[in-house]
Amino acid sequence: MSAVPRPLSLLCELTYRCNLQCPYCYNPLDLRSYRDELTTEQWSGVLRQAADLGVVQAHFSGGEPTLRPDLVALVQAAAACGLYTNLITQGTFLDDVLLDRLVDGGLDHVQISIQAPQTALADRIAGATVHDKKLEALRRVLTRDVALTLNCVLHRLNHDSIEEIINFAQRLEIRRLELANVQFYGWAYRNRTALMPTLEQVRHGEQVVAAARERLRSAMEIVYVLPDYFGDFPKPCMNGWGRQFVTVTPNGYALPCPAAAGITTLAFENVRDRSLGEIWRESASFVRYRGTDWMPDPCRSCERRELDWGGCRCQAYLVTGDAGVTDPACSLSPDHASIVALRDAVSGAEPVYRRA
Amino acid sequence: MKPTAHPRFGKGVKLRHDGDGSVMLLIPEGALVLNAPAAAALELVDGTRPLAEIIATVAERFDVSAGRAGEDILDLFERLEQRGLVQ
Ligand SMILES: C[S@@+](CC[C@H](N)C(=O)[O-])C[C@H]1O[C@@H](n2cnc3c(N)ncnc32)[C@H](O)[C@@H]1O
Ligand code: SF4
Ligand code: SF4
Question: For site-directed labelling of A319, which of A49, A100, A183, A348 has its Cα 20 to 30 A away?
Answer without folding.
Answer: A348
